[in-house]
């Protein structure tokens, strides 16, 4: 009884603040926690049966069958491979180019010009993947696109870009870098501008040239940021940018072999092919491996430097 | 003094490298802006010239046909603009209120349940149910398909923004302010709205901008939940006309236009004109946004 009394007294004392967390709490319950419970349908043969809860309760329990089906198809291997390989390439090329571009921007003598470049590079970040899809199409359209026209002027044959899988790994990497590089280099640029200028002055007095300064001051000062951002990205390595793989490829079926990632697979399972069970299983596989990766990469960050860890 | 100037010169890049660096950054910056300019040029190209020569930076014949057709048969365009603006404004307001209230409460050291609610929000960053269960909750349980709420609610709260705002509140706002408010007899909500919000404006502005951009550019929720043409937002409309221009005429009030207009409508250039019209506001506004985004990135980098 005493405990219950104290509970109500605490609730009452905190009621204003509890009221403040209420709206977002309700949101989290509906949009985050109920879907977490809903993953139970990856162990069921999902059938619509009245509302949400009764559908889930009444669907037949099939254990790991959905996972067995999923992993017995070629799809599981292809989507895992594509998701991982693209992300690995994005993370590492992205890191190197973003740091390089940040250094380039920070070293340009004319600050006004540098600001203009930065503004230009930042623009793609503000555009949606739908728009980017149109941009890519203006270059790759078979009969009207700029790339085929330039090829023609060199006497080369036109290419059906949207049905030639072999080019897409490169196209997707280029488009990804085009969209994200400006944003990421601004992050590093902000870090570079925060470096204590007296370090460079001291280095100059010691006779260090520009390259020695970059190698011995700028880069080491960026290592913590590079580490944390890279480890965070590794924690998200099982998630792909749906827009990039769906909009930019125009959902072209002939390209699925090199463009199907876990996110597009789950979407198609839900909306196009109707394989709800397998699609949910793939989603749980993604969330579970993603969870393990986030925990692991955070653990590694903590080992390096406690302040950089996410939690 | 003389030696210092010499040192400063020494710090500079050599002219050759400076030019090279300018070229690298300049060419990439141009490559980032070019596609938008290109699409804009295409939208002002004559349809026949386009059929003959393809997309070209220097079209043989210019034309504003695409735009004049769009204004004649553009009910759908206007409606989609309206939906996008409505969703963006309402969504951003709802999102700001929910995020800032939650973040403020868990930033208060006197709040008994702050640890629990912090973890409650934070855990959603680690694990999620995935697309299918979310879809089923949204459609089966909440019944939001084909309603504006399906475009607003899924994007309203974001644990990452809550973490940013909590850090902002706990580092920028001294406890003494809350105490002084209490002494003056204000309730918790009074303290929050009258004392805290004005101080937290920079942080709130950052979240508002991120949220505005998120809503403006969202097409995924429309792809999942919206079939009703009256509720299709801009980005989603652009996806639908990718396959068929029919979509923008299907909902035209101007029935006298009908199929004839569709046949004579400059299809390719109209598409690109619509891309330009949908992107225009963002492209015009982003140089102003950019400064805040850079600040926002710095706010986000600070940990509690």
From TrEMBL, chain A:
GO terms for cellular component: plasma membrane. It comes from the Bacteria. It is a multi-pass membrane protein. InterPro entries: MetI-like, MetI-like_sf, UgpAE/MalFG_permease. Residues 80-297 form the ABC transmembrane type-1 domain. The chain crosses the membrane at residues 16-34, 84-105, 126-147, 167-195, 216-239, 283-301. It is found in: Cell membrane. Keywords: Cell membrane, Membrane, Transmembrane, Transmembrane helix, Transport. Pfam families: BPD_transp_1 (PF00528). One of its GO terms (biological process) is transmembrane transport. Belongs to the binding-protein-dependent transport system permease family. PANTHER family: BLL4140 PROTEIN (PTHR43227). This is Sugar ABC transporter permease. The lineage of its organism: Bacteria, Bacillati, Bacillota, Bacilli, Bacillales.
From TrEMBL, chain B:
It is found in: Cell membrane. It comes from Paenibacillus rhizovicinus. InterPro entries: MetI-like, MetI-like_sf. Belongs to the binding-protein-dependent transport system permease family. The chain crosses the membrane at residues 20-44, 81-104, 116-136, 148-169, 189-216, 272-289. Its main location: membrane. GO terms for biological process: transmembrane transport. It comes from the Bacteria. It is a multi-pass membrane protein. CDD domains: TM_PBP2. This is Carbohydrate ABC transporter permease. Residues 81-294 form the ABC transmembrane type-1 domain. SUPFAM superfamilies: MetI-like. Keywords: Cell membrane, Membrane, Transmembrane, Transmembrane helix, Transport.
């Amino acid at each position: 009884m005493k405990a219950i009394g104290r509970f109500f007294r605490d609730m009452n004392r905190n009621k204003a603040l509890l009221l403040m967390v209420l709206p977002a709490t309700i949101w989290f319950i509906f949009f985050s926690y109920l879907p977490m419970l809903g993953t139970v349908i990856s162990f069921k043969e999902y059938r619509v049966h009245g509302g949400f809860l009764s559908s889930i309760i009444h669907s037949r329990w099939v254990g790991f069958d959905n996972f067995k089906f999923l992993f017995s198809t070629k799809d599981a291997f292809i989507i895992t491979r594509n998701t991982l390989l693209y992300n690995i390439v994005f993370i590492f090329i992205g890191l190197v180019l973003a740091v390089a571009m940040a250094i380039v921007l920070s070293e340009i003598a004319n600050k006004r010009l540098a600001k203009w470049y930065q503004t230009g590079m930042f623009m793609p970040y503000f555009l949606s993947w739908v728009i980017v899809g149109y941009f890519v199409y203006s270059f790759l359209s078979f009969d009207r696109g700029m790339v085929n026209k330039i090829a023609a002027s060199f006497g080369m044959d036109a290419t059906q870009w949207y049905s030639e899988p072999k080019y897409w790994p490169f196209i997707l990497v280029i488009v990804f870098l085009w969209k994200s590089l400006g944003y990421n280099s601004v992050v590093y640029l902000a870090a570079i501008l925060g470096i204590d200028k007296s370090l460079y002055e001291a280095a100059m007095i010691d006779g260090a040239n520009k390259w020695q300064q970059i190698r011995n001051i700028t880069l080491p000062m960026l290592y913590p940021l590079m580490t944390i951002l890279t480890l965070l990205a590794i924690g998200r390595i099982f998630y792909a940018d749906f827009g990039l793989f769906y909009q930019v490829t125009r959902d072209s079926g002939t390209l699925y072999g090199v463009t199907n990632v876990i996110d597009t697979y789950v979407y198609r399972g839900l909306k196009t092919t109707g394989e709800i069970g397998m699609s949910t299983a793939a989603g749980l596989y993604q969330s579970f491996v993603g969870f393990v990766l986030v925990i692991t990469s955070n653990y590694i960050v903590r080992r390096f430097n406690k302040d950089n860890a996410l939690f | 003094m003389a030696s210092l100037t010499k040192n400063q010169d020494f710090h500079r890049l050599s002219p050759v490298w400076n030019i090279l660096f300018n070229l690298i950054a300049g060419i990439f910056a141009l490559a980032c802006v070019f596609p938008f300019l290109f699409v804009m040029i295409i939208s002002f190209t004559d349809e026949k010239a386009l059929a003959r020569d393809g997309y070209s930076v220097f079209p043989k014949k210019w034309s504003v046909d695409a735009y004049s057709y769009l204004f004649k048969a553009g009910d759908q365009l206007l409606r989609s603009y309206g939906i996008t603006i409505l969703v963006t404004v309402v969504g951003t307001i709802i999102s700001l209120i929910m995020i800032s209230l939650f973040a403020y409460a868990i930033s208060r050291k006197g709040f008994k349940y702050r640890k629990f609610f912090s973890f409650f929000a934070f855990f959603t960053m680690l694990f999620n149910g995935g697309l299918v269960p979310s879809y089923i909750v949204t459609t089966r349980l909440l019944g939001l398909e084909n309603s504006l709420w399906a475009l607003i609610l899924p994007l309203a709260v974001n644990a990452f923004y809550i973490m940013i705002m909590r850090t902002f509140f706990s580092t920028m706002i001294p406890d003494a302010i809350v105490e002084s408010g209490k002494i003056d007899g204000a309730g918790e909500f009074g303290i929050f709205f009258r004392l805290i919000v004005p101080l937290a404006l920079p942080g709130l502005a950052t979240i508002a901008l991120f949220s505005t951009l998120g809503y403006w550019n969202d097409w995924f929720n429309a792809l999942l939940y919206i079939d009703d043409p009256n509720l299709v937002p801009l980005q989603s409309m652009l996806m639908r006309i990718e396959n068929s221009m029919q979509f923008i005429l299907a909902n035209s009030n101007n029935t006298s236009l009908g199929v004839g207009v569709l046949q004579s409508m400059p299809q390719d250039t109209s598409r690109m004109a619509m891309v330009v019209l949908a992107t225009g506001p963002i492209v015009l506004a982003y140089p102003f946004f950019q400064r805040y985004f850079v600040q926002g990135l710095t706010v986000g980098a600070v940990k509690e």
